[in-house]
Amino acid sequence: MYPAARRDEIVENLHGTPVPDPYRWLEGPDEPEVKGWLLAQEELFRAQAEPVRFKERIAELLRSGSVGVPVWRGERHFFSRRTPDQEHAVYYVVEADGTERALIDPMAIDPSGLTTLDAVQPDKEGRLLAYQISVGGDEESSLYVMDVSTGARVEGPIDRCRYSPVAWLPGGEAFYYVRRLPSTEVPEGESQFHRRVYLHRVGTSTEDDVMIFGDGLKMTNYYGVSVSRDGRWLQVSASEGTAPRNDLWLADLSSSPAERPELTVVQEGVDAQTGLVFGRDGRIYVHTDRDAPRARVCVADPADPSVWTDLIPEDPEAVLTDFAILDDLDRPVMLVGWTRHALSEISLHSLETGERIGAVPTPGLGTIGGISERPEGGYEAWFGYTDNTTPPTIQRYDARTGETSLWAASPGAVEVPDVRTEQVTYLSKDGTQVRMLVISPVSGEGPRPTILNGYGGFGISMTPGYSASILAWVEAGGVYAIAGLRGGGEEGEDWHRAGMLGNKQNVFDDFHAAAEHLIATGVTTSAQLAISGGSNGGLLVGAALTQRPELYAAVACSAPLLDMVRYELFGLGATWNVEYGSAEDPSEFPWLWAYSPYHQVREGVSYPATLFTVFQSDTRVHPLHAWKMCAALQHATAGSAPILLRNEGEVGHGARSVSRTVDLAADQLTFLAKHTGL
């Protein structure tokens, strides 16, 4: 039934453990044998595929469009919006008189839909706009600068700017940014790393850019950079890969030149994440999880930035996510955003004392994104809001009246189905309480076909949000559950660390326990239970299907990490050993070996129906993980449930066009529906 895949006798001895790797040959995407195997898998997937369900309904629900939080520069503001028929969101400027103009339309740049807008940053006056675009899903951002008034491009492309922040100096004449060294200057295989911070003067050659930071530091470092509104203070941060900690420096640009800033240490060698906001009152506001796993806000004097005083102390239950300062008031206030067990709220505090004086009204129990203020101060704030049945909206808060009002809605009118959402609490294997959102039809009882989704990594929280595929599944009679596993950020940094490195098995235990809870409470049965996850969530479901194959009927595993012995050798894997550990380290190898899904596949086991979905241009997680795991499962399974691979070209790990999103979601839901009986 399955395409032939040779098994090689490759066994490496790692720290005294024999590690077989029979499908290593699948790591070479350009090899004719690999291409032939992928073609055969494509034919198998198409032959097995049912008539695609859900596609029209998902497309319809995505016609809500979307809208982004505004960024203010004087009387101008900038924002993104996607209308019902657009493949990508468009970035706009709105003038003081309300005139709106499109600045960047990815479809106008590239009608194929393969170009994505990765990042934008207006200068401090709103006259110039730095923006980054990439093509075909490779996320290899090129940086450009546009004149906002004319739309003319004045700079770029500047290449090697993936994940680069842009920090403008006042006047728009120069900015700090992060760029990788040329591949000719780094060892082979390391071209994705070796970032540096540069100062670039607009209109000059990048050859003249001055490197101001990063030389001699770790290859896998990521850097952050920002400049205060008045141009006096420069902040530079460095973190090793995706580590939940950073070093932080501050420079006074009034006493040292922009090309040679004298950086003083704010935090170095400390196991915490810290960032600075430069207040208009001359104080520094410090957002940190140092000695506060759920985070706090402190204040400091720029003259001595290492001495902090608590302003908003840590909350025992809620995680402090962001804040904004409104100071055009008799009594200036700070708006503080929190997530309490993954649900968002905003509290109101005295800016002077930190005392809580009220709350900001929000539309419901959902997710608030990015509280934004005017850089010069004011009495208004804007924030995004969404929940499981509400497409993205922008809310405006007026501190003079204490009222929140709808400022902008997603532009498309859609008929959203009625669903019931509840948050349940269950116990994991070790007795830890874990929370899970369960979205189900409003009428009727279970058990029903159910999809269980999770992530459990990198401190990322699973919060409520509008999802066309979830709504389409529930409308068809299914249940969709999202578990807030350890490894995520739902309960703060301690929760993250309880699921990383040597604690990774806790994540899988939390997931199995979620499945068992759904079965025990009559929501579903093993024969009706599917699991889905992408990226680190793909690792999650890969581990789940190998550890408890009898518990699950079907699996959708997208862009996954699955060979945890060799993951550091591909894509951005070397930046994640601070999350997972390294197979090169004899003390860390056993963690990875214990759960590495590819190495846990056993012959003669009846594995659940499994669909791997991967993206040929994925430069974060190489599709080889799914290719090797697919071959291993097809060889090993004793059951009749299919093991299939959907290999998609010209897209990557991140943003994609709406039509590509619809096709992928419909294929996944169709597969899961067939194998859970929906």
UniProtKB/TrEMBL annotation:
Which GO terms fall under molecular function for this chain's record? serine-type endopeptidase activity
Please state every residue range assigned to the domain named Peptidase S9 prolyl oligopeptidase catalytic: 469-677
Coiled-coil segments on the chain, per record: none
EC number(s) in its UniProt entry? 3.4.21.26
Keyword line: Hydrolase, Protease, Serine protease
SUPFAM superfamilies with a match to the protein in the record: alpha/beta-Hydrolases, Peptidase/esterase 'gauge' domain
List the top taxonomic levels of the source. Bacteria, Bacillati, Actinomycetota, Actinomycetes, Streptosporangiales
Domain Peptidase S9A N-terminal, first and last residues per copy? 3-408
What reaction(s) does this enzyme catalyze? Hydrolysis of Pro-|-Xaa >> Ala-|-Xaa in oligopeptides
The answer to whether the entry has keyword Hydrolase is yes
Question: What EC class does the entry list?
Answer: hydrolase
Q: Which domain of life is it from?
A: Bacteria
User: What protein am I looking at?
Assistant: prolyl oligopeptidase
Its family remark reads:
Belongs to the peptidase S9A family.
Q: Is Hydrolase one of the keywords?
A: yes
